[in-house]
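Good morning N.,

You mentioned wanting to compare the apo and holo forms, so I went ahead and generated the holo version with 4'-deoxy-4'-aminopyridoxal-5'-phosphate. This is what I fed in:
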Amino acid sequence: MKLFDVYPLFPIEPVKASGSWLWDVNNKKYLDLYGGHAVISIGHNHPHFVARLTEQLHKISFYSNSVKNTLQEELADKLGQLSGYPTYQLFLCNSGAEANENAIKLASFVTGRKKVIAFQKAFHGRTSGAVAVTDNKKIVAPFNAVHEVIFLPLNDVAALHQHIDETVAAVLIEGIQGVGGIYIPEASFLQQLSAICKKNGTLLIADEVQSGYGRTGKFFAHQHADSQPDLITVAKGMGNGFPIGGVLIHPSIQPWSGMLGTTFGGNYLACAAALAVLEVIEKENLMHHAQKIGNEILERLKASQYFEDVRGKGLMIGFDLPQPLLHLRNTLLTEHSIFTGEAKANTIRLLPSLALTKEEATYFFSALEKETSKY
Ligand code: PMP
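and this is what came out, ligand included:
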């Protein structure tokens, strides 16, 4: 059977990984500044992550959600404590799209409404429900499966006032827009958004799938703005590569039996992986580290005369390339063995492990200097 060919692939086959590094089949070493779309939060194959997963594999890996699973409770406690949301409730699933899908479903249940407001350039996933609230031009949204969705410009309070009313179930916003190009909601916009949602009985959903888990220097990107969403969706960095997602749910939202469901969500291995991630983030003080090293990288990029619109927070960074440097992402990979991400043809996205070292950042800047000096 052939694989269904829907992803562009680099002709590189990684077979081994450690920290911020990958090795291919020919034992060539690569610096990973992309972390597989921001998934690698604590570093590839962190020893504590490997040990906790291995230990769990020798105990039990799976049983259905019809039995008590204390690992889920441990995970909820630890996540509540580290994220600053100890009173919220946790629903576990397997991916970011699923988390968003469940959050929208919850908002519909709670409000009895179907309309959703989302933002231009947003990306929320590839299930039909998640695609419906996605406005990334690369993604084809063939139909609005469940909801009527209105896309508004980010940071436009007047547009929000114009479109929100008591028929809107939810406003869905990324903590920082990732796939769309690293665009940051202004703090004052988020605060006004919270207040306007409250006034209309509309639930605010923060999609922290890419921007959460310490990546921006706080546990969630929206916490830079002091706003408090009703629902927060997580995935990617949550499992450092093990598939897991979740929805953090405001304590006022009451669950009822059968309201949501999942087969694989919250399985023992996923919980062990997610607990290992939180333990390492806490023990190695990775949120603080991400903020510090991220600021240093941002400052150095801003100081360069070659890059435009350098933006981001912590280790969620984007910058635009001038026309003569459009090849840079490819050249970094082929000439310097450095993986980076892109958002549009001229935007480079950096989403490295939160444990990225100063030396690794220096390695990246020497490669940048070599390439920009040719220009
Ligand atoms: N939300 C955001 C902000 C994302 O960046 C992504 C994935 N790029 C998703 C949701 C969907 O996550 P998944 O691919 O795990 O379904």
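Residues 37, 95-97, 100, 123-125, 174, 178-179, 207, 209-210, 235 surround 4'-deoxy-4'-aminopyridoxal-5'-phosphate (CB under 6 Å).

Happy to go through it together on a call whenever suits you.

Best,
F.
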